[in-house]
Amino acid sequence: MRGTGKGNLQREDSSRRKIDVPAFFSEREAPPQYAPVQPPPQKKPSSGRQRNKVYGRVAYLFSALFLSLVGYLVYFNVNLSEQMRANPNNHKMEEQKQYVVRGTIYSADGEVLAGTDIDENGSESRVYPYGSMFAHVVGYTTNGKAGVEAAYNTDLLTSSTSIVDQVEKGVKNEKVRGNSLILTLDAQLQQAAYEAMGQYRGAVVVMEPSTGRILAMVSKPDFDPNLMEQNWDYLISEEAGSPLLNRAAQGLYPPGSTFKILTALAFIRQNPDYASYRYDCTGYISREDVTIQCYDGEAHGTQSLQESFQHSCNTSFANIGLGLDLDAFADLCGDFLFNRELPTLLPYNSSQFKLNGHSSYGDVMTTSIGQGDTLVTPLHMALITNAVANGGVMMRPYLVERVENVEGVEVRETKPSQYKRVMTAEESRVLTGYMQSVVEGGTAAALWNGSYSVAGKTGSAEYEVNTGAGDEKAVSTHSWFVGFSNVESPDITVSVIAEDGGTGSSAAVPVAKAVFDAYYAGRVPEW
Amino acid sequence: MDNLIIQFSRYAILFLMAIYTMQSFLVFAKREEDDREFLFLRQDLMMFMIHFIAFIVLFLETRDREILFFYGAQFIFLAAALVFYRNLYPRASRLIVNHMCMLICIGFIMVTRLSLTTDRISAYRHFQITAAATAAALVVPVIIRKVRVITKWTWFYAAVGIGLLGLVAVAAPDSYGAKLSLTVAGVAVQPSEFVKILFVFCIAGMLGRAKSFRDIVTATAVAAVHVLILVLSTDLGGALIFFITYLIMLYVATRNALYLFAGFGSGAAAATAAYFLFSHVRVRVQIWQDPFADYAASGYQVAQSMFAMAAGGWFGTGLMQGTPEHIPIVEQDFMFAAITEELGSAFAICLILICMSCYIMFVNIAMRLSNRFYRLVALGLGTMYGVQVFLTIGGAMKFIPMTGVTLPLVSYGGSSMLSTVLMFAIIQGLYILREDEEEQIERNRERELAERRFF
User: Fold this and answer.
1) Segment B171-188 mean pLDDT
2) Tens digit of pLDDT for each residue in B225-243?
3) Which residue of A has its CA nearest to B29?
4) Are A479 and A351 members of one domain?
5) Considering CB atoms only, which of B309, B368, B445 is closest to A37?
6) Same domain assignment for residues A322 and A439
7) Residue A11, in any domain of the structure
8) Cβ neighbours of residue B48 under 8 Å, at least 6 residues apart?
């Protein structure tokens, strides 16, 4: 490492020979090479080498720490920064408004869902041609931000036009046009779902099983994003009934019988001979002081697992729940993202599932039939159903197909991506069969038709409402349906909830039917 | 048009910074002295170009002549620092001098930029203290060389250090939940910054002379007193820096990894206990887990830091284009987030690598010193620096819980600046000392060779 003696002799200014190479990074160890000529005093060569080893370790340890900082910064940029930019508390992009005109939002079929109009004075206004139809999912930008407008604020206020254009606008001191978003939403499906919901409160989510594209997302009651300022006081008042809340992603509802999909899956996993399960339904089941009834107290008689599912037999599923390993059941629900974060940029609420090994019989029985403390969002139910339709793989849901610059040149495209496999292909096949039987001769028979096949599950989720007079409470029922069409090669997954809509078949199934019909109008199922 | 220049400036700054950083590592591969010299000069050029471009942007944004004044003063300072070091201490490590100037240069840019959103007093103050500190530090290598008794005042260092920390714990007012600074003649001084240096000298003296287990227990007890006083002042960052530095010094002095593991084990136990005992520790951990849970209050600062980093992306918003001033105490504890926002994550990665290069050089110097005491001093000071960089950057990124320490040489803060510049100077002094030793040996050897030839 050091120069040879001869070399040093030739050098006039020995102070210039400075070596900055850390010894522990070089191939050769540090022991001084002048030892043969004159052994340096007070130095034992072996201890020097050992000593250097310790210093080397410290240097490596700290290098690792510094590199972990670099690693985290990369991770932050790749995985977290988008989420941070979409955070509703983030007002960082406001400054860009002086340079950039907010970009346009299009539906998948090319309809303008949100655009910026500029009048002759140069003042800008945000216009939503469809009014309240896309209100929750597309969002708004006055009185705060919501929906896609909030989540993709950065893209809409970033301009990726050509350098020439930027230079030209820069020189003229003109604003550049922000990037456009092309959403996955299908305006026709959205309209069908929106109209089918009518006066019901609730939500509809439509997804494409193989990709996770969200084709429609409706929430009711709604609001007109063009009139935010005028209507604001009413929108946030109590009587309005929280119209700003996107019930599709943020509304937490008891899942009712739609949850039997997961109870059945837990049973299948824990009992390899599940096909031989039989239960004699007498219309009710009691354990300690809790009694569970079938709908209207109907006695279904001897039921297999498939028949229990088809007839939505509460007593049979309560019985199944009592026999389950509850910790394994809780793990399964965790795998299906209960009590977890959902892979989406939209604001949402996490679904909850509270059973564990210490739960009471009452809790076990009610939870097994989708009541109890379990709460779920329509979007989450759509993800679960979509996983069944997609052969057991849960897809990451997404709303933005492409980001383009104002000239239509692609900036970024969302590729469908698998979130994770949540069940085996065989399990999804069995559940699909059960769900098909629900349509063929069960609670969703209204969906049985000649032109497309459907597999699904209805739900009638009971909840208590205050009747206003003191502590009196009445029981009301939310109407659920989850399912997918063209069972052999699924086309769309639909998740519907109609608040206070009665049984699943009375309100939610007709809404789902309207969506399926709209999808297949002028289209033939392929397989 | 201005906007255009500003937009392009960020790529230029990043490009120069990337080259500077690459050269800091490439220099190790250069065998020829002249090549190295050339490379170090080019690094200085990169630094001056970054400084120049940054101030063009600041000027275009403000059209304020005061900016030109700042530029001139800072340019003269940086050039003078390089020239003085080069000529007074030709044997100092050029790489460390360059890094020191580069980090100060980045600090100048950011402090000046941030001062534009408030008043400009902070930019003046920062410049004054940096200039004064660097001038004062120029005599340090001489002191190291001449005053050899500094190796002997072990207990004096301990007494002064503990006394100062104790005074802060008793007398200092609360600032942001921690007792940090005393006001002396109208100037806020943060004594723990200087105690860092005393602490390293004290521990190096004790461990350097340690012959028995008992000596190690004594040293540990002295270190524990320092750390405990800092914990009581709720200066968690400070306590952590002292604690880890002591462990590393102990490990290197004894070469016994058991001490290291035992130390980290008891440290983890103490941290867990602190979590349950002190609410302010719990708050820090809760913020780290989810800054949005209490966004409006305790989580606000870290959340704003995250927003700033996200807004910057890889290439940054460009100087003056972001809003780093939304982060409370950005000039001190969250300087890294401000840099990431406006100069970009890629620039920030270069910054981390420069700090890493500094640390590697410090250990390298420590390793080559022959005197046990000096070796431990160099390593200890270097480790103080390394831990602090890790804590402040990790905290700003929410990689670890926030501990509230500054980014050395870059952040605003007089005490921190002065003590860091002194640390760098002490290490340089030790390096020069070693070069002297080596030259002595070499001279002996040359004489011997000459004699041999003569015979």
Assistant:
1) 70
2) 999 999 888 888 899 999 9
3) A21
4) yes
5) B445
6) yes
7) no
8) B75, B78, B79
Q: What is the mean pLDDT of chain A?
A: 86
CATH of the domain at A130: 3.90.1310.10
CB atoms < 10 A from the CB of B45, how many? 13
Collect all residues of chain B within an 8 Å Cβ-Cβ radius of residue A171: 1, 4
Q: How far apart are CA B415 and CA B126, in angstroms?
A: 11
Residue A379 counted as domain residue: yes
Looking at the fold, whether A434 and A507 belong to one and the same domain comes out as yes
Asked whether residue A21 is assigned to any structural domain, the reply reads no
Nearby residues of A53 by Cβ (< 8 Å), 6 or more positions away? none
Contacts of B303 in chain A (CB under 8 A): 87, 89
CATH number at residue A434: 3.40.710.10
**What digits encode the pLDDT tens for the residues B408-437?**
999 998 889 999 999 999 999 888 887 777
Report pLDDT for B177: 61
- The pLDDT score that the predictor gives to residue B44 is 95
Cα separation, B210 vs B204, in Å, equals: 10
Where in the sequence is the domain holding A68, given as residue range(s)? 47-86
The Cα-based distances of A180 to A102, A114, A133, A415 in angstroms read: 9, 10, 20, 17
pTM over 0.80: no
Provide, as residue numbers in chain B, all residues whose Cβ is less than 8 Å from the Cβ of A70.
Answer: 349, 352-353
Q: Are residues A328 and A461 in the same domain?
A: yes
Q: pLDDT value at position B175? A: 66
Cβ–Cβ under 8 Å, residues B238 and B230: yes
Quote the ipTM score: 0.93
CA–chain centroid gap for B320, Å, is: 25
Helix ranges (DSSP H) in A173-259: 187-197, 228-235, 247-250
Number of helices and strands in chain B (H, E): 17, 4
- CB-based contact, A165 to chain B, within 8 Å: no
Contact of A301 with chain B, judged by CB distance below 8 Å, is answered with: no
Q: Is residue A522 exposed (0-12), middle (13-18) or buried (19+ Cβ within 10 Å)?
A: exposed
Q: How far is residue A231's CA from residue A224's CA, in Å, rounded to a whole number?
A: 9
Q: Which residues pair with A382 in a beta bridge?
A: none
Handedness of CA B52, B53, B59, B62 (dihedral sign): negative
Beta carbons within 10 angstroms of residue A300's beta carbon:
21
Q: What DSSP string runs through B355-411? A: HHHHHHHHHHHHHH--SHHHHHHHHHHHHHHHHHHHHHHHHHTTSS-------TTTS
The total number of structural domains that make up chain B: 1
Taking the Cβ of residue A524 and every Cβ of chain B, the question of whether any pair is shorter than 8 Å is answered with: no
Same domain, A169 and A285: no
Mean pLDDT of B124-147: 89
Instruction: Using alpha carbons only, give the angle A299, A304, A310 rounded to the nearest 5 degrees.
Output: 70
Angle at the Cα of A145 from the Cα atoms of A110 and A407, rounded to 5 degrees: 35
Chain A environment of B314 (Cβ under 8 Å)? 77
Q: Is the bond leading into A254 cis (omega within 30 degrees of zero)?
A: no
Q: Nearest residue of A to residue B394 by CA position?
A: A69
Q: Are residues A65 and A117 in the same domain?
A: no
% of chain B beyond a pLDDT of 70: 97
List the structure tokens of B45.
């050029």
| Count of domains for chain A | 3
Q: Residue A483 above 90 pLDDT?
A: yes
pLDDT at position B362 over 90:
yes
Tens of pLDDT, residues A23-65: 544 433 344 444 344 444 444 444 566 777 889 999 999 999 9
Which token pair is B168? 């802060």
Element (H, E) at A383: helix A378-389
How far apart are the C-alpha atoms of A54 and A51, rounded to whole Å? 5
